[in-house]
User: Fold these one by one.
Assistant:
Number 1:
Amino acid sequence: MSLVGLWWVWLAGAVVLAILETLLPGYVFLGFAAGAAVTGLLLLVGGPLALWLTGSVAALLLVFAVLSLLAWVLLRRLFRLKTGSVKTFDRDINDG
């Protein structure tokens, strides 16, 4: 089976990483999940990039790493605190 036929493995890996993110939050696994999902979709849709990706496992892993890094940076920018602000809590969760 060619590497293009393994698109479902990348999407299944993305689902597993997304579930792992809910168990261990921190936006680390979510970046990897996004990278795996986009890599799987690239293989599923095809096109010139998918043909280049099928050439070697190293190229496929390189695209996955770059996409995961981009997703992680984007998530950090979206969910960061404003500059100079501190996260504060107004009430305790145990207060009734």
Number 2:
Amino acid sequence: MVVIRLLASRLIAFAAVALIFAPAEVSARTDPTITGSFSSPTALASLQRRLMRLANAVPGAIALSVVDLRRGTTFNINGDDDLPAASTIKIPVMVEVLRQVTVGKFSLGRTVSLQNRDRDWGYGSLCDAPSGRPYSVRDLLWLMITRSDNTATNMLIRLVGRHRINQTMIDLGLDQTRLGDIIHSDGDVRELRTSANDMMHLLSMIAQRRVINAGACDFMLEMMLAQRHNTLLPVGLPKDVPIAHKTGTLHDTLNDVGVVELDGSPYIICVLTTHLRDLDFGERFIRQASRLTFRSFLGLLSAEGVDGDGSQRQ
């Protein structure tokens, strides 16, 4: 069973990550084959039908993938469709940065100076900082993931190389995840691409500590748990359920992908929506899909005689 381990404090986390990082090979995709349906149990088969009805009612393109991390079953709707990644592409950037830290190319304390070409005013405040100001890789990672800062992301892409990020995603078996360019909100941001299944597989590998090494995965999960944009997947779920996730938004696109650490039954849900007439349609769908999925996994635990905290009922 996958369990997200919360570190005692951010300072301790940084020290722990620095100590535990050690060179490791990138893991290839070995997750369960996508079959398009849950083979069992009934609660998850019912979830599949309800999600499909919801998706059919949305005026736009919808892709959704769910994986039960405990039982290894999966379900997807249009899971292999190539869609705009928006800011969910920052998860692959994070993976490549930490891969290069692990192999010793630079440390989390390495500083990167802001250049004018890095600036993007779509999300984040770093774009207004003076040129030449240095920032540590550690701080840029936190800004990129928790605040979705585009300028911080561009600085990290410049550091590790866009083509290297794309190659690592290919090595991991993610065929549709790629950066066609750095992030420019006023440019062709549709050059940032992924699929719901790609994101599901990448998050599965992180949750199962199969990317880089366990310390790197713990650090990535900690940053995603500290996400400041929490108006999609977390809405309607209990406040005490940890959700390590990353959102993405364009003018007609709304995405959220994450690991929901429900005790006894952790799962991953990845939802991509695009070609929306109004972002409200995407927001409503992602929230409804998240609530339905959570309730189904709770129902599954109840049917197995397991309480929400993962303990077996007597």
Number 3:
Amino acid sequence: MKKIYLDQASTTYPKPECVAQAVFEYMTDNGCNINRGCYENAYDTEEVILETRELLCELFDGPDCKNVVFTKNVTESLNVVLKGFLNPGDHILVSSMEHNAVMRPVRQLEETGVEFDRIPCNAQGELILEAMEGLLRPNTKAMVMMHASNVCGTILPLKEVGEFCKAHGLKFIADCAQTAGVMPISMKEMNIDVLCFTGHKGLYGPQGIGGFILQEEMIGKITPLLSGGTGSISHTEEIPEFMPDRFEPGTMNLPGIFGLHAALNWILDTGIQNIHQREVLLTKLFLEKMKELDSEGKKIRLIGKENADGRTAVVSIQTPGRDVSEVAYLLDKNYGIMTRVGLHCAPSAHKTLGTYPMGTIRFSFGYFNTEEEVLLAVKALEEILWN
């Protein structure tokens, strides 16, 4: 049975061939660390790391490439930023659609005296912009918000929120896990102070590599969460003040960065607009066929926006009268179609969308999926639900 991978929102697969090749070549032909060795291979490795920082700044219209910090994933990035920036007595705003990568650190910080409010979203996952003003307090310090929902794909208005933050003196921390690499993002135009990303989703890199990018004025405002050897100023036991060493102690995931370096070049060569258009095409096809299949919505409930406008290539459904876990199991067992089922680490989003506590079956498409695979998924649902 041919396997069909429709869980791209979790991690993209397959990766471009150049990604695996880059990791393999680093592991077999180089393998050394940076900032430690005074030899040619170490310098060559450092050059690739520098180029990767530069590529990320190019992709996200970021500041100086030294302000790119590598972490394991977007969850670590958000933890470093939130726990290093917020103090007892501070107040922040989040959207009601946030992933637990934001909400769990925020809940943890709440125990120390940090306060937060959720900006409500409607049943399609759209942010209610006019509600933001009324949630402001004298001690509101920042806005923390995802760019797009991992549950229903709805895109949140980063530019408008960035303008609001600038007008009210708030710092804007953006979680771009679901959009980095598949949608244009400009830190400058969107007034983003900190952009957090992961490498293994739309950036098409390996798992275990992510990071964040800081505007210059944020560097001294965030206390490093981790400390240790950096290979620089080794004569002192104090944390370096300069970037990126201030936030990058210990041995980095160099194989992951080499893979990300290759992936970023592939994205820039392919074109973000082309990647996005491909994903929109597949999403539109899936939505249209699902509506044809169940025009009255008796057996399939589409979650979120009804069409492909204003959403990523993520579509969640519920199956009234059938357990979503059973349907997802049958999709995999009988048809080889891999999806994700459950709450997707985002209970707040599901409560907003009215899908809590059952959760949803999530179909998510990527650049390498085909129209045939989309049609096979629809056909499989028809056979499961109508037989």
